[in-house]
What does this fold into?
Amino acid sequence: MHFVTVVSAQMARNLYVVAGEHSGDAHGAGLLKALCGMIPNLRIAGAGGPKMRNLAGETLTDWVEDAAVMGIWEVLKHYRWFRKRFDAMLAEICELKPEVLLLIDYPGFNLRFAKAVRERLPKTKVVYYISPQVWAWNRGRIPGMARCLDEMMCLFPFEVDLFSQAGLRTTYVGHPLVDELASEKEDVSRESNLVGLFPGSREREVNRLLPPMLDAVALMIQRGKAVRFEVPAASDRLAALMRSMVKQHAMEQHIKVTDGGSHSLMQKAACAVVASGTATLEAAYFGLPYGLVYKVAWPTYWLGRMLIKVPFIGLVNIIAGRKVVQEWIQSKASAETIASALTDWLDHPQQAAELSAELRSIAAMLGEAGAHARAARVVAEWLNGARTETLFKKNWTKQIYAISCCRKEVENDRWVKQFYTRSSVQSSIGSWMVCTFWVCQNPWGRFMDCSLFLQSHWRWMISCKSCRWAKEPQVKVWKCYET
It folds into this structure.
């Protein structure tokens, strides 16, 4: 690998951050807390959840209750709302012109937002925390991510090569759950007659997953099991919804709904049923024997089946590379299936203990503590101008391919693009070439698409294709030299 370094001397103290789920809110709050300790006068704006808002203040909007939508069908039903929020946030960031945009997970929204910000604010550095799991569902999106992001911060070591090979600067920081859960440990023993129900942190998840859980509770009670059940709610709004559903099923005497306390319940319950997502890793960290449930709209499910490239849905099974946790998906997430599994763990504590030990060993693969601090240092370096831009160059066959457009500066109302390329054909020169182009801007602010091709084995020739919508379709080669 070859790298070229461009040093930036800008000092920055303004950050715009976007997180769209409760897990992202928790991760973002941990990062921002560490970052504010490094840069005391940092001004933060954007969108997130209540934990991030407590740190950032009124300049950050709490939107996770409405933004946390899971599944393509669900997103389409709320497209107008998302479009309105997208446009409002884009207008806000264009007005603020922050030096760094920090995106936390939430790839469906954040990757589109990154592309729009890159086009309108080329000087703003775009940093992504909690790398999208494109290795599971769409690796073809990685080159596009490399064009609109300045740095990716990964949770797992194997992700680094996937992103860096596409020209995207990538840093492994570890999993933030290790930081967040270490302080939540309690010196308690598991209660043999306590079962945890974790239907998720989104309202739509709760509406889909809590009913079969409640039906499973009814079956276990009918069969004479002397068991207590608890359901932790991620917010007051979800707590009210859960209590209403429990009341409708006439289960108030058997099920207790709590405001928060999910991590405490994971350490006390004998076993549980957990919605797919971050909570499954949390349960594994605490060694809670559980089964995973996953239910979405059928169009979303079938589309996901065509896109997902891994055999499992649960993160624990994906990390382990084998089936450790039972996965109850769609129609398999029935009351009978859930009740049978929970009863089996309660009746055979040795099996539950073996699963608990295995889950703890898999959770140990998440890495060491300090992920928030490591991620905060990366963002702080971009804000302080201490982090340099790294231009990654990749060898392609038959034609020169511009992997990344790494700097865009405004001069005389024209955009400067820099491409770093190398011929895959072993010519007499065989050296790296740096080409800088003056490219005209089209009426919608999008950049024209330039292509570079090797016309001869013995010399470099440059040809450019300009956008037909450009006001000035010609492209002028400003500087071309060998290094």
In short: The domain at 2-174+370-389 is CATH 3.40.50.2000 (Rossmann fold). Residues 1-10, 391-483 have pLDDT under 50 and may be disordered. The chain has three domains: 2-174+370-389, 183-365, 394-483.
